[in-house]
Amino acid sequence: MEITRDPQGAAGSAYDAIIIGGGIYGITLALEAGRRGLKTLILEKGDFGEQTSFNSLKIIHGGLRYLQSLDLHRFRESVGERTWFLRHFPKRVHPLPCFMPLYGNGMRKPSIFRAALFANHLLSFNRNAKVRPDRHLPMGKVVGVDKSREIFPLLDTAGLKGGAVWYDGFMPDSQLLIMDLLLAAASLGADALNYVQATAIETDSQGHVCGVSGVDRESGTAYQYRSDCVINAAGPWCRKIVEGFDAVPESLFRPSLAWNVLFDRKALSDHALAVQAREPGSRLFFITPWKGKIFAGTGHEPWLGSPDRPCPDREQLLGFIGSLNAAVPGLDLRIQEVGRIFAGLLPTTEAGSNILTKREVIVDHGAVGGPAGLFSVGGIKFTTARLVAEKILTLSRAADVSRSLPGEESRTYAQVEDGTNLELYRDLLARDQSILHLDDLLFRRSLLWEDGEEALQFAEKLCTLFAWNEEKQKQEIDRCRQRLLALPDGI
Ligand SMILES: Cc1cc2nc3c(=O)[nH]c(=O)nc-3n(C[C@H](O)[C@H](O)[C@H](O)COP(=O)(O)OP(=O)(O)OC[C@H]3O[C@@H](n4cnc5c(N)ncnc54)[C@H](O)[C@@H]3O)c2cc1C
Description:
The chain has 491 residues and is an alpha/beta fold. The protein has 14 helices and 19 strands. Flavin-adenine dinucleotide (FAD) binds at residues 20-26, 43-46, 50-53, 55-59, 61, 197-198, 233-237, 241, 258-260, 297-298, 342, 344, 346, 379-383.
């Protein structure tokens, strides 16, 4: 397992495609391009997967809710991608039992759900194909009141008619799944540069893309990278990347704020609970068990600010907690129990709205009056990023897949099982040149971030693994302290 980082060397190479953005969309693009024999370069201005992709609710959705709107196309896409993850990354993705109480109002009737779960079962008949048995997803079912109470002891049983149980995929350590995918892409020939920011897309005299200018944020050195295909997968920044070009469609990524909260409170159930206050029009929330704690989402609000550091304010957070408490009477969560907020931006239907778009937006800029060879993507789900990568590559007329995924060894980023064994991190640093900062190691190459106090105690020792002087060590520890312990200002 090796991840290299050579900004200078990459400037001397020619690439079939340059991908801007090293989130899940950029990384799965590099992976799928590699399977088509294409050589790619990923440019990531920070660390891999540190933005939106770090902040998801960690559910690989099978799309049960798309059945409700009879969006069978989207349902099939989600089921297919969930199977792909369970099949190829069983170490990181496992079945998640989900539960929804049924009070008999509207669609929430046992009879309707029984039919829906049966349809779900039939329409996803091949969901376990080539998936190892302990990752198989059973058929969902409707359970009675007693079983519902067993699953979810805090359940309000007044008027309860039963509950629906179904299964999805869960990636508790999504940051390591991203590193697995990056490793797989690298084994298929992708070069990936974190802390290199794309500063301009270069075009030739014919108006065709010919490369990307970038700056290595570590050294301050500027570089030119060459390719006649550039894919802008910069998530919430993707409009900014192309704003200088003509005819950027209005539909490309208008941001809205979304967040999940990890509470310092024991999980309510081993099932993810889909809950909603009884008042009509209330929002549905998922209260998921994550490593024994309550991980709840998702809050949505309009966002008109900059894409950097999105976060709900105190009032929005209080509103969110109030809605969770209304959905589960007796829950009584308090703002003091907020352990961490996972926030990001998602594309919305119109500026200033918090209604999410239903589909990804892919722009072939050459086809709408912009530079030929330039593509942009605004994705909506972690789950379907790989499939969207396939669609973009088809649009860019890449060949069909000819290479299978690399072997297990080349698609499993080493997980340090013994969290405080310094030698294991030394070994990791020797094999992964993209670990440039302490928080790369704490947040995105290990599980250390989960216990902030412990991570900080260990941080000084970890610093000895890097060639840093005392001042730099202090800076790195301070930066981690901010990210590990502090909640955003005003909360
Ligand atoms: C609160 C929340 C909950 C969610 N829950 C789920 C869920 O449970 N399941 C699910 O499937 N999906 C979920 N999603 C959606 C999913 O997380 C996103 O669709 C996905 O992570 C977007 O990935 P991305 O690669 O497009 O964006 P990002 O992860 O933001 O990556 C874009 C990258 O581009 C980089 N970049 C920007 N500008 C430049 C530049 N100039 N040069 C170089 N690099 C640049 C950024 O640094 C960033 O790393 C959730 C999202 C949120 C916010």
